[in-house]
Design a protein that fits this description.
With about 725 residues, the protein is an alpha/beta fold. Strands 5, 6, 7, 8, 9, 10, 11 and 12 form an 8-stranded mixed β-sheet that branches. A 7-stranded antiparallel β-sheet has the order 20-21-22-23-19-24-25, with helices on both faces. Mean pLDDT is about 85; it is low at about 130-165, about 550-565 and about 725-730.
Length: about 725
Amino acid sequence: YLSRNQLTVLPPRLCQLHQLRTLWLDNNRIRYLPDSIVLLHSLEELVLQSNQIAILPEGFGQLSRVTLWKIKDNPLIQPPYEVCMKGIPYIAAYQQELAHTQPALKPRLKLVLMGLKDAGKTLLRRRLMEEDGQSEDTGSLEAGSTQPRGFPGQQQDVGRVPVGKGIEVMDWTADAERGLTFIVYELAGDPSYDVIQSFFLSPGALYVLVVNLSAYVPQHFYSSVGYFLHWLSSKVPHAVVCMVGTHADLCAERELEEKCLDIHHQIAQQEKRDAEGLQSLVQQVDEALGQDFDLRCSSPHAAFYGVSDKNLRRKKAQFQYLLNHRPQILSPVLPFSCQDRCQVRRLRDKLLSVAEHRDIFPNLHRVLPKSWQVLEELHFQPQAQQLWLSWWDSARLGLQAGLTEDRLQSALSYLHESGKLLYFEEHLTLREYVFHNLPRLIDILNIFCQRDATVLLQKLLSDTQIDELRTTQLHHYVEGFLLHGLLPAHVIRLLLKPHIQSREDLQLILDLLEKMGLCYCVNKPKCKPLNGAAAWYKFPCYVKNEVPHAEAWINGTNLSGQSFVVEQLQIEYSFPFIFPPGLFARYSVQINSHVVQRSDGKYQIYAYRGKVPVVVSYRPARGALQPDTLSIASHASLPNIWTAWQAITPLVEELNVLLQEWPSLYYTVHVLCSKCLKRGSPNPHTFPGELLSQPRPEGLTEIICPKNGSERVNVALVYPPTPTVISPCSK
């Protein structure tokens, strides 16, 4: 165990430790590993995260017995980061492939434009991608290519790009001489797209946060800038951000300077507040660790009551991780006007210089086997315009690239992890397909984020053969969709008519949407439906109605207003900085396989696990100093409280798995005091969520509630029967 020792090199004689099974080297300054490390054939745990390792030694895949493997937060280029994160077998496959074919270096970087709806992202993208910054109606193209992602050779008239189309993606060869290509993602500023936009935020990308300077006022800093920085930093640790202020030509010189300085100043203030808050939390954990564990357990008033030293150290490590991975905001705001060629060139040069900085983007120079690069190009050739390929079609392309079927899996896995295509190798149905056509897939996602009834009806009524009765029915379906998020499968097929040709195509798309957390089947049959019964799908992000009986249940009363003679169990997640956009809607889909008889509201789900009721509730922050909360609750009589734990445990575990998609998100978990809930207290006492992962202390039967010294809470209402619930600090 050699963690946190400021080591820079390892001795080559390390290979003489033939019986070594565990080697932890995380949080050092190691730049390379000795070649002899591959001879440690007994190694079972190898932890290398948070170093400066760029290249792994040849033959690294020989460490086949390693089961605990951690490598994140290293500037890896060979193998690429995406390959290393998949594990030793994938590293072995990469190195074997590299030995079979010559290496290929193809510099490509993901460039993501984000900001409010009227920030000017589309026009900025069009001007950047033009050859010399001439007026937009010339439709001139960058020398090299300006084309929709995935179809080399098919050029697009950038002077005619529609505004407000949703999420768009395309390739931009920004420097033809050096072959530097940006994969440009323009995110929608409309909150309707929140449920899908986080899929497009990933490590190793350059983010451009766009602000409309002509409309900016200091009072709206958070909605224009601060919110996006919180969102991005929670999803992408150490994200690289370039601030750009558009419509600079509409501001007077002094106004322009004042607004840019204000944005710069408020960003610094927000970062300082966040860092100081995290430092304060680290200090609180240190103080708790300085106390004896028995002392922490002696009084429920104590901070981190009952939390083990092990969980406290994990919690401190989590806070340190958040502190060490703040966003990298590269410079003050760059003013930008589409009318000013110098500003257009300056921004383009800035993006190129940042992209080519090896310390910022080491992954730009990653080395790939030539066969993997050829496979990628074959998947994106102009004739491959269908929405997906079957596994066997992809395998045939693999043979053309020189990849046999057993070597194809690793290549597809890399292309999936690096965002070039979608391949879900662990999904029972979807693993038979490769979704290589991202522009068309994004078109489909955009359809289901569309909240304009007129646009939806136009798609449904495009068939001139539809009679008046059918038109009325479709109007009814659209109204139900926009209010309750419900659509039958045959109407979904009409909406997707240009993209799908058969019922099998439709089912595949619906499986994909469910995998992404966008919808679930309300009446999924266990076998083939009889008499052609229609399958209905629910899109939780569209639900607008409230469910009052769920609110009454959470407050401890039934519909007639009488109090329950049962104990309530409630786990609450608090999000002080930001609640991830679209999280509640996606979580609604994730838990569907665990519940029955569900009733959804905009912010609540009332359902059953077997015969035990559960309620999931989201409560938006009621003020600047209050956090958003998401709670999972159930109830049962005290002798049967284990049934309530059984009911909520899978739901808590699903939420923890989903939250791992936001590795830099700060949140806390608490168990609410059952006695306080029964009294209807507006601010019930909370016990630390870390207790969920700890065994019940021997001999302890009751805990005093600090809110009322005479109240005693049965230990079964705070600790689960077995510590199986994943705690947030264990990720």
